[in-house]
Amino acid sequence: GATAAVAAVSSSSLIFLGTGCSTALPDTRCLIRPSTPPCAVCSTVLSLPPDRNPNYRLNSSLLIDYCHDDGAHKYILIDIGKTFREQVLRWFVHHNVPSIDS
Ligand SMILES: [Zn+2]
């Protein structure tokens, strides 16, 4: 989705990579063949850029950034969907995630 937890360097955190449904939002079916009246959620996605739009949501996915006592980080990925590439581009770079450990 458009939001993600803020990761502190020296602590563990949860990074929400996506909070949408399996089709992600906007649903391409709603964009290609709008209903009458148009779907309120998907049609409003076009009015704001993805990073400022709460209705722009990627597949549900969570990344656990676990910080050990020695400061070393391990990254545990829960669930992965077809929007994973965009999630990596948006959040892995933003949070300096170097790898997935599990
Ligand atoms: Zn829709």
From TrEMBL:
Stored InterPro entries: RibonucZ/Hydroxyglut_hydro
Keywords per UniProt: Signal
Superkingdom to which the source organism belongs: Eukaryota
Signal sequence bounds: 1-24
Name of the featured protein: Uncharacterized protein
